[in-house]
Amino acid sequence: MSASDTPMHALGGKAPEPTSMRAPRLNVEQASYAYSTKSQFAPTFTLTAISFQARECELVAILGPNASGKSTLLRLISGTIAPLTGRVELDGEETSRLDVRARAQRIAVVHQESSAVYPALAGDFVLQGRHPYGRSLRFASKEDIEIAHHALAQVGADHLAGRIIGELSGGEKQRIILARALAQQPRLILLDEPTLHLDIGAQVELLEQLRQLALENHYAVVVVTHELALAAEFADQVVLLHRGKCLRVGTPAVVYQQELLEQVFAAPLDVEAGPAGRPRVNLRARRGEGAI
Amino acid sequence: MRPLTIRRVLLTCAGLSGVLLACVVLALKLGAVPISVTDLIVNLGRAAIGHGDQLPSEYQLIVFDLRLPRILLGILVGAALSVSGASFQALLRNPLADPFVLGVSSGAALGSILALIVAPQFAFVTPLGALLGALATIAGVYFLGRREGELDSTTLLLGGIISASFLSAIIMFLMTTLAGRDLRGMVFWLMGDLSTPVPASLRWIFVVGLVAGVGAIYSTAADLNLLLTGEREAIHLGVDATRVKLVVYISASLLTALAVSASGAIGYVGLLVPHAVRRMFGSDYRILIPASAICGAIAIVLADALARTIVAPTELPVGAMTAMAGAPVFIYLLRRGMR
């Protein structure tokens, strides 16, 4: 299957004011991390020093195959773990030093799947995004309800508010999860493989939505993904990871070089220049000719 | 969007309290000696306005000295066990969690018995021993239930059930060797029974402990809602998961310990009641905790009234009643979860 065969034109052509003029929101500076099973042993996985920046309205893709360190980098950015060296700052504050509440007011994290033990209504689920702003029992205020409504409207899911989450389709569920992140009114949205369980139509829709939201609400958006084609089409910047090392940082056109990608993803690939300076990636069959 | 309001919580609790009051009157009426409801209400009214000394003496004895204390104890135990069950269900993210199933009740029972053996001269050692026993057991079961760093539902339940039967065997051993086949005592600790009155010196400890435990858990109700969707997500939404878990583990163990030291290991209330409440009022912990407390009280008061009357004048242990109702529900939930 080749994702790039699907026409993707929507927001690629609509050039906003150059984001490079804005001040960086997220600043990752020489951040590194190492896991080890026991402290006296050598680390089993190391993420070597990484630097990149994300400005508001910008969508950054962290790209790499499995076990390349993408999730670790995400945890560093979200502040759940502190870097061994270097720093991760959001608007000048180190994310790992913020307390949980302050962090949740600034950073929203969207995971692959959200599982509920008991059935919940989509509207109540979105209201959970107001949790970091409330105190004690957090009965929803009028303002909370307005914000939740607005968040649902922004992802085009107002009509789903009264539905039970477990009964929604994958794409609808993803929108509700995204709406909860919006209700947090964050400055930075982190998404961990958000397209994993979506079909190609829903994937494109989600990423278009993310770009739109980043522009409207001035978020910085960081998406962890292994989807080469989607990152090429939608990311302003790509951070390419391979076995815990950051190989390249830059626009898709700079990062997408055939030999590099073939080596990282261990698959024969064709990279060609597409419209609006964005590269296109095609999977090449090992035997035979042409794209599948 | 119709989010939960404080008004709805209060109205629900007021309604349920009315039902509880009706159940208390019914339980006062039922028993080996029948008493008419009108007499009962008239006499209760008299006692309430301070003319209790003018009551006929058999009333005084049966209603106020025998039945009422037992009903009040039932209210306390039912509320404690239900709230504790609902809390464990959130912490362990498992709808089958219950202090009895997890072995926490047996741990509390063993703790009280050991405390009685070590220092029988102090009344307060039973709840204290029960608390230590409950905390040790839930810590043990929690670690038994972990597989590769994650809580595994099946392993957790098996760990709990095995701990319960192991601890019960020790209780049986201690009761047989030390107390000389005290069958009534064994039933009290293993099955749960309300017939032994709480010593007067402990009554206030129990009431204060219940209010403090339920209050502490209720203060985290909004956090528990998020913990149910997963700890990692809850943290990203601003929940201080470590603090909340610690508060709730200790409070839920305290509630179990209070209930067990007063009435032995009554089973399945903590499973049955929160499940029924979820069906009626939804699974939001801000309404689930107070509604479970009141419904738990109702359940135990009714179960004990039934236990006192179905084979009167012989009395059944109330734990037998709750197990008869609870075990089938456990199987039902287990099978539904497997599908």
Task: Give a description of the structure.
The complex is a heterodimer of chains A (292) and B (339). Chain A folds into two domains: 176 residues, P-loop containing nucleotide triphosphate hydrolases (Rossmann fold, 3-Layer(aba) Sandwich); 73 residues, no CATH class. Helices cover 29% and strands 25% of the residues of chain A. In chain A, helix 4 crosses helix 5. Chain B is globular. The two termini of chain B are 31 Å apart. Chain B has a two-stranded antiparallel sheet with strand order 1-2. In chain B, 50% of the residues are buried. Chain B has a single domain, classed as ABC transporter involved in vitamin B12 uptake, BtuC, CATH 1.10.3470.10. By secondary structure, chain B is an all-alpha fold. Helices cover 76% and strands 1% of the residues of chain B. In chain B, a hairpin with a 2-residue loop joins strand 1 and strand 2. Chains A and B meet through helix 2, strand 6, helix 3 and helix 4 of A and helix 9 and helix 10 of B.
Give me a quick take on this structure.
The complex is a heterodimer of chains A (292) and B (339). Chain A has 292 residues and is an alpha/beta fold.
Helix/strand layout:
The complex is a heterodimer of chains A (292) and B (339).
Chain A: E1 24-35, E2 45-55, E3 59-63, H1 70-78, E4 85-90, E5 93-94, H2 100-106, E6 107-110, H3 122-127, H4 142-154, H5 170-183, E7 188-192, H6 200-217, E8 220-225, H7 228-234, E9 237-242, E10 245-250, H8 252-255, H9 258-265, E11 269-273, E12 279-283
Parallel strand pairs in A: 3-8, 3-9, 6-7, 7-8
Antiparallel strand pairs in A: 1-2, 1-4, 4-5, 9-10, 11-12
Helix pairs in contact in A: 4-5
Chain B: H1 6-29, H2 37-48, H3 57-91, H4 104-118, H5 125-144, E1 146-147, E2 150-151, H6 153-179, H7 183-191, H8 200-219, H9 221-227, H10 231-236, H11 241-263, H12 269-281, H13 285-309, H14 318-338
Antiparallel strand pairs in B: 1-2
Helix pairs in contact in B: 1-3, 1-13, 3-8, 3-11, 3-12, 3-13, 4-5, 4-6, 4-11, 5-6, 5-11, 6-7, 8-11, 12-13, 13-14
